[in-house]
Design a protein that fits this description.
- Strand 3 and strand 4 form a beta hairpin.
- The protein is an alpha+beta fold.
- The protein has a 5-stranded mixed beta sheet, covered by helices on one side.
- It contains 2 helices and 9 strands.
- The protein is globular and about 50 Å long.
- It has 2 domains: about 60 residues, 2,3-Dihydroxybiphenyl 1,2-Dioxygenase, domain 1 (Roll), CATH 3.10.180; about 90 residues, 2-Layer Sandwich (Signal recognition particle alu RNA binding heterodimer, srp9/1), CATH 3.30.720.
- The relative contact order is 0.15.
- The protein starts with 7 loop residues before the first strand and ends in an 18-residue tail after the last strand.
Length: about 170
């Protein structure tokens, strides 16, 4: 079996109008498909580049948000989520656009971690400075639904040496 990447990820919106405004105006992702669902509700798709989409369902009677269970409660600091939940959604971005993205998000009133996070293989997993061991640089923020989003700029391709940990499991 061979897949060709992600077609779309489907999330749930608290308010579809607010979600459309954020994704089209702030993140500049075109709204490319809308569906009215039988029995009420909506399913909208946004083009996030590279042939992939971010989709949202909306129902008037959807269960309430569950930060710390189904979504991140606070980043940094409390970013654990429940088994089967979505922790965050990361979009590819060129490294030279990260600082401009921070300014754009802040100008739109979006709370954003005001630094570019350098992910590396150190014990802390992040570095204050760029160095050859950094494999991705990230900007983190949340959308109006409380979904943690990331703009991620890869600094190098992964290779066999990047897979060096034994998978953990539940003790029997």
């Amino acid at each position: 079996m061979r897949t060709n990447g992600i077609n779309h990820i489907a999330l749930v919106a608290r308010d579809m109008a607010e979600t459309v405004k954020f994704y089209t105006e702030v993140l500049q992702m075109p709204l490319v498909k809308t569906v009215e669902l039988p029995g009420g509700g909506q399913h909208f798709f946004f083009d996030c580049g590279g042939g992939s989409a971010v989709a949202f369902f909306w129902w008037a009677d959807a269960p309430p948000p569950a930060p710390g269970i189904a979504s991140v409660r606070k980043f940094p600091g409390d970013d654990r989520t429940a088994i089967g939940s979505m922790n965050h959604l990361a979009f590819h971005m060129d490294q030279d656009e990260l600082q401009a993205v921070i300014a754009r998000l802040q100008a739109a009133g979006v709370e954003v971690l005001p630094i570019v996070v350098n992910h590396d293989d150190s014990e802390a997993t992040v570095s204050a400075k760029m160095h050859p061991g950094v494999f991705v640089r990230s900007v983190y923020f949340t959308d109006p639904n409380g979904i943690m989003l990331e703009f991620a700029a890869s600094t190098r391709e992964f290779g066999p040496a990047d897979v060096r940990h034994v998978p953990a499991g539940v003790a029997a």
